[in-house]
Design a protein that fits this description.
The structure holds three protein chains of three kinds.
Chain A (H helix, E strand, L loop, with lengths): L2 H29 L12 H10 L6 H12 L14 H36 L3 H15 L2 H15 L11 H30 L2 H8 L4 H31 L1 H6 L5 H11 L2 H29 L7
Helix pairs in contact in A: 1-12, 4-7, 4-9, 4-12, 5-7, 6-7, 7-9, 9-12, 11-12
Chain B lengths: L1 H29 L20 E3 L5 E5 L3 E5 L4 E4 L25 H37 L1 H16 L2 H11 L6 H32 L2 H8 L4 H9 L4 H23 L12 H8 L2 H6 L5 H18 L8
Antiparallel strand pairs in B: 1-2, 3-4
Helix pairs in contact in B: 1-2, 1-11, 2-3, 2-5, 2-8, 2-11, 3-5, 5-8, 6-7, 8-9, 8-11, 9-11
Chain C lengths: L1 H25 L12 E6 L15 H11 L4 E3 L6 E3 L2 E6 L5 E6 L13 H12 L12 E2 L2 E2 L1 E6 L2 E5 L19 H9 L22 E7 L3 E6 L18 E6 L3 H10 L4 E6 L5 H9 L3 E8 L4 E5 L3 H7 L9 H10 L2 H8 L4 E3 L23 H10 L20 E7 L3 H15 L3 E7 L1 H9 L5 E5 L11 H4 L18 H15 L3 H18 L2 E14 L2 E2 L18 E2 L1
Parallel strand pairs in C: 1-12, 1-13, 17-18, 17-19
Antiparallel strand pairs in C: 2-3, 4-5, 5-9, 6-7, 8-9, 10-11, 11-12, 13-20, 14-20, 15-19, 15-20, 16-20, 21-22
Helix pairs in contact in C: 3-4, 8-10, 14-15
Chain lengths: 303, 318, 573
């Protein structure tokens, strides 16, 4: 299979995923009780008028057909609450989320992978402490960790507590998002390197007198990356939905925040638009994971 | 050497796990008060220390000094050092403090354990089983099967789960029994949890499938099911253990998120997730840290799961 | 056209710059009193989806907050006294029959783009308000007996408003109608695109208003910056042109916790939805004692929490067989007696609330009638009332059963993760001890409204926002035909004798000219309400408002927007 053919197929698959996910979100939205118009208050005449204006009184199939027709021209409809095109809203927020996600991913990877290689291949008091810390990061809900960090930032005045701005604004949300992921990567990496060191090849190398350190850093780590890269894409894809709590607490104007708002107000087309962005993120993440996987371990094909 | 270590290590966590399981089953019996009971005039009461020696120096069975609210807005309590109370007294004894409604946190953590842990463990087990099965099939079969299964996994990952839950909630009757809620949760969580497990398992199976012994087994005429079960899945055990460690706390918290869109255990049934989300305010962590008790319980749970899943004791052996 | 516009912006910039320049030397006022210049930062929990107050949107609060800063009305209701006071209209007269109000507009007032304000703009704004193609949610609130007001403009400075029927609040109605510039929006109204005009992405230079501030920059998801309107018409007592502030920055901060953190850290000066939760009061007081914050306590909130039963005909038919008691007045009275409101106040609100028994709270000083029936905690009377309905503990299990042995049970819908939900949880536990089983169902607001709209519920525990002190401005709640008559909305004819009586009293009350007479009639309404108890009112919080010490000139009030209602007189210390 040629690289170009592989990429072309993946891009097509990604587009299909985006489309199906978006449609799915739209149809699910119709099944949920209450709609955007029902929040107009208790005046049923007004609610009915609004429902009509927004086209929410049409049968589901017809609403979907309308949306489908427009989506062919990349028009994903208009958000009910923001009264603006969904594509514009999602685009401006997606950039913010991408920025946050990319920084967090970089921090998590640069922290988690070496951390896991160390904790997976060595033993001792310090290592035990390091493993304990990662377990702690893993089990503390992000809502609480980000609030705590924010509190520290607010009390000490070291870091800004709100919104977007310079690099310093990135610190709190990035850490809140990155630390649990770093912990996940540490877990996976430690497990994986442990397995790699237990393979017959590594054991025989050890028997031949090659130092443990040399085995780890020359051979085993490369082999051990496989399982991590396999779900690396998933981690990337869920970064944006996982950033709900963090984005809201730190007032980061990203997609997670937008999607939550859309969900709670039944802003149907906006939910669909956010789902589209989420699917695109996921597809990109999976592709990234596969490409890295293929680079590190050429035996693996992509799916 | 490795085998010796596992045999030695496996016992301690199993014991801990057994103790925890027992605790969970017995928890409602251990709770000093009914989880929904509200003590009027005791909002945010601090934990009350047990004593055995009174002010006069005499020994007693464990007791506490009763407290009363001196300043409601400041949530300041004063202790009456002359009086003694036990769990049978009229005044409450909050070993782990009380919440905003004057309910005993300890009783709620203990009673909530059954639902929260049961739900998270069952859902995680189901999600991992489905994920492992699908991932293994995809990785072993390759080709179109692989492509399609992974596409479905991706789709399951990106669908807005909350909407699925809202839709489900709309279809269900207004008042739900605990069993209905439990079943709905397990179904939703299994749906959410399997894709990442499937992706990981697939990745490992693809690599392992090309290793020598799987090829050898195939050459010897072993059936695909046998190769998967005997040779490929064992290689994913470590990965699945890590996944379990991740999924359980995530599910415990997700239960709280979903309960705010109406799919939750009917109040006042306690659950750790809802307790924590209720407490998740910055002033709470600073002024009333005991409300974070469920977080402690979650950390403990994760520690135990981790050690059981790995067959090692995390504290004795890294 | 474009050149003209650019020229205009240039003029504006010069005007703004010179205004700043002039103010700079005099900024340091001796006694720490009001000084021109500086800026304050306010938080807002949700983003305004539009800058057009007439646009149909469910997000009323943020749109209103911004409109009050950037637009002005003919008459302003003083949020402190509840009385209408001259605003864009410098005075008005009322005809003998109370139906015709003649307003004289202030002279020399101009929009922020320098174009003079005339009665044409008033006519235009009312036309837009009532235009069906706009579909404004405000329209139904600016009607008398369901009919729109008639507006005429005999000359450029006179506006004559004719009410369809005598209406006591009269001019106060106009507090809800911001005056928009005809010269900028006429085309949109003619093209039936008014509802979409002035969205948040509209270039600020193409908008103009009569309010103290103008939109200067909008960053989606982050902040809205408002700058001084150089043409604003008000001056303070010393003749200084208002507003004092050069800028108000509105930060969008979601979640009360995040908002409180920012207030404590000093990155915001005030909260637009300003009240503070009871458990936050103590730490704010500590900050006040250190001089970092100021706290105001304007009184008891006018937004109490209530529990209402579904009294619609459909519910009555559904419950006729198994649970007829759900429609009975005695049942509601029993529930009211069984609820220990003091326990809710002392536990949940840490004492920062008062028990209430009806929709009008003591915070509404002009209209609260202390003579209305009260239901102090009285388990014995509750039990007696329930026994009168045949609901007693027949099998000794501590819970009540009806004659057929079925347990007494109903469900309460409420909002999860909110003090309303926690209040409902306390009610649930209190009713359990009274032998009544309650299924508490926590829903998100849209689902809750959906169930409410379809009438698919037993009871709801929620809060109803009051936007005005005067009961005649809340007829939607009191009249049986009203959509806010929540227990049985939009009735064709009154379903019960007491609802008919309240309808009559309220109609009389709304038309009566003398305050004393209106108060007497309204006290009678409150008595009838309290006796028949269609809504069981529980508690109303004592409002606490916190601001940074930089905020000067604030007069915090009970009605929204609690601080920003007189934004033009705020200054930075």
């Amino acid at each position: 299979m040629t690289t170009i053919g592989f990429l072309a197929r993946r891009v097509l698959a990604a587009l299909a995923l985006v489309f199906v996910a978006t449609s799915g979100a739209l149809l699910l939205a119709q099944l949920a009780p209450g709609d955007y118009a029902s929040q107009f208050g208790r005046d049923q005449a007004q609610v009915a008028a609004e429902r009509h204006r927004l086209g929410l009184d049409l049968p589901v199939a017809q609403q979907y057909a309308r949306w489908l027709k427009r989506s062919l021209t990349l028009d994903l409809g208009e958000s009910f609450q923001y009264q603006r095109p969904v594509t514009a809203l999602v685009a401006e927020r997606a950039w913010n989320t991408a920025l946050l996600a990319a920084t967090s991913l970089a921090v998590a990877t640069l922290l988690g992978i070496p951390w896991g290689i160390v904790t997976g291949s060595r033993r001792g008091v310090l290592i035990r402490a390091l493993r304990g810390v990662s377990l702690l990061f893993l089990s503390i809900p992000p809502l609480i960790s980000s609030l705590t960090m924010l509190a520290v930032a607010a009390r000490t005045g070291w870091l800004p507590v709100s919104g977007m701005g310079g690099v310093s604004h990135l610190v709190v949300p990035t850490l809140a998002l990155a630390l649990p992921i770093a912990a996940i990567l540490e877990r996976l990496q430690a497990q994986s390197i442990g397995d790699a060191l237990a393979t017959p090849m590594a054991l025989s190398a050890r028997a031949r007198g090659i130092s443990r350190r040399r085995i780890v850093w020359r051979h085993a780590w490369r082999q051990s990356l496989g399982p991590i890269l396999a779900i690396y894409g998933v981690i990337v894809g869920t970064l944006f939905s996982g950033s709900f709590a963090v984005e809201i607490v730190t007032s980061w104007p990203g997609l997670g925040d937008l999607m939550r708002q859309a969900l709670l107000t039944r802003d149907t087309y906006l939910v669909a638009g956010c789902a589209a962005a989420g699917a695109a993120f996921l597809a990109a993440g999976v592709l990234l994971g596969d490409v890295l996987h293929a680079v590190v371990d050429p035996r693996v094909g992509g799916a | 050497m490795r085998e010796v270590r596992e045999v030695r290590g496996v016992r301690a966590p199993l014991l801990v796990f057994a103790a925890l399981a027992l605790l969970v089953i017995a928890a409602p019996g251990l709770a000093p008060y009914a989880p929904g009971r509200q003590f009027d005039g005791y909002p945010y009461a601090p934990p009350m220390r047990p004593h055995v020696i009174d002010a006069a120096g005499a020994w007693h069975l464990p007791f506490a000094h009763p407290i009363s609210l001196a300043d409601p807005i400041e949530r300041r309590y004063v202790e009456d050092r002359r009086a003694r109370i036990t769990f049978a007294s009229r005044e409450p004894w909050f070993l782990l403090g009380s919440d905003a409604l004057g309910r005993d946190v300890l009783s709620r953590v203990l009673t909530g354990a059954r639902l929260s842990l049961g739900l998270a463990l069952l859902s995680a087990a189901l999600a991992l089983a489905i994920g492992a099965a699908i991932g293994a099939v995809a990785g072993y079969a390759g080709g179109w099967t692989d492509t399609w299964l992974m596409r479905i996994a991706d789709l399951a990952l990106v669908l807005p789960v909350i909407y699925a839950v809202l839709a489900l909630r709309g279809a269900l009757p207004l008042v739900l029994t605990t069993v209905q809620v439990f079943t709905a949760f397990v179904a939703v969580f299994a749906l959410v949890g399997w894709p990442s497990a499937a992706r990981g398992v697939r990745g490992i199976v693809v690599v392992e499938g090309r290793s020598g012994y799987a090829e050898a087994a195939r050459a010897l005429g072993a059936s695909p099911a046998r190769i998967i079960a005997r040779h490929l899945l064992p290689a994913t055990r470590g990965f699945l253990a890590v996944q379990a460690t991740m999924l359980v706390p995530a599910f415990i918290m997700a239960e709280a998120t979903l309960s705010f869109v109406g799919l939750g255990f009917a109040p006042p049934t306690p659950s750790w997730g809802v307790m924590l989300t209720d407490a998740a305010s910055i002033r709470t962590t600073a002024d009333t840290p005991w409300l974070l008790a469920p977080a402690g319980a979650i950390v403990l749970t994760v520690l135990v799961i981790h050690s059981v899943a790995h067959g090692r004791d995390p504290l004795l052996d890294s | 056209m474009a050149r003209y516009l650019r020229f205009h912006i240039l003029l504006l910039a010069i005007a703004a710059a010179s205004a700043c320049h002039r103010s700079a030397p005099g900024a340091a006022s001796p006694a720490g009193g009001p000084a021109r210049g500086g800026s304050l930062t306010a938080s807002l929990r949700s983003e305004p989806p539009t800058f057009n107050r007439f646009a149909p949107t469910a997000a009323q609060a943020p749109v209103d907050a911004v409109a009050r800063l950037t637009q002005a009305t003919l008459v302003r209701v003083n949020r402190l006294t509840g009385d209408p006071e001259p605003w864009l209209a410098e005075r008005w007269t009322t005809s003998a029959d109370g139906r015709t109000l003649t307003f004289t507009l202030r002279d020399g007032v101009a929009f922020s783009d320098g174009v003079p304000f005339t009665s044409e703009d008033v006519l235009f704004s009312f036309r837009a308000l009532y235009d069906p193609s706009v579909g404004s949610v405000l329209a139904s609130g600016v009607m008398v007996q369901g009919k729109p007001l008639q507006i005429a403009a005999p000359d450029a400075r006179t506006v004559v408003v004719t009410l369809p029927a005598p209406f006591a609040p009269g001019a106060a109605l106009l507090d809800n109608v911001p005056i928009y510039p005809k010269h900028l929006l006429q085309a949109a109204l003619d093209a039936h695109t008014f509802a979409a005009a002035w969205g948040v992405t509209t270039p600020p230079a193409t908008m103009a208003g009569l309010g103290p501030f103008v939109v200067s920059e909008y960053v989606p998801g982050q902040r809205l910056t408002l700058a001084r309107n150089p043409h604003y018409w008000r001056r303070d007592a010393a003749g200084v042109a208002l507003p004092y502030l050069d800028r108000i920055v509105v930060e969008f901060v979601k979640g009360q916790d995040a908002e409180m953190l920012r207030l404590e850290a000093g990155s915001i000066d005030l909260m637009t939805q300003a009240d503070v939760a009871p458990e936050n009061i103590s730490s704010l007081r500590r900050l006040r004692d250190r001089g970092a914050l100021q706290i105001a306590e304007p009184g008891v909130s006018v937004d109490p929490i209530l529990l209402w039963f579904n009294l619609t005909a459909a519910a009555a038919a559904k419950n006729a067989q198994a649970r007829p008691y759900l429609q009975r007045t005695e049942f509601r009275q029993a529930i009211s007696y069984a609820i220990d409101r003091d326990a809710i106040v002392n536990t949940l609100y840490l004492g920062a609330a008062v028990p209430v028994y009806g929709p009008v709270t003591p915070g509404n000083r002009t209209w609260y009638a202390d003579s209305a029936p009260k239901y102090p905690h009285d388990p014995a009377r509750a039990a007696a009332l329930l026994a009168g309905l045949g609901l007693t503990d027949r099998n000794g299990d501590g819970a009540l059963e009806d004659a057929a042995g079925r347990p007494v049970r109903f469900s309460i819908l409420t909002q999860g993760n909110h003090i309303r939900g926690r209040t409902a949880a306390m009610v649930q536990e209190q009713l359990r001890t009274a032998g009544i089983a309650v299924d508490l169902v926590e829903l998100d607001p849209p689902s809750l409204f959906g169930r409410f709209g379809s009438g698919d519920y037993d009871a709801i525990c929620y809060g109803l926002q009051t936007s005005a002190f005067d009961p005649a401005l809340n007829l939607d709640f009191w009249l049986s035909s009203g959509s806010n008559h929540v227990w049985n909305p939009e009735q064709k004819t009154p379903a019960t004798p007491w609802e008919r009586a309240i309808d009559d009293l309220m109609q009389k009350q709304a038309a009566a000219p003398a305050l004393a007479e209106r108060q007497r009639l309204f006290a009678e309404v409150q008595r009838l309400f309290g006796e028949n108890l269609p809504g069981i009112y529980l508690v109303s919080p004592k409002v606490t408002i916190a601001m940074s010490r930089r905020v000067g000139g604030a007069v915090p009030v009970l009605l929204d927007p609690k601080i920003l209602w007189q934004a033009d007189s705020l200054y930075a210390k």
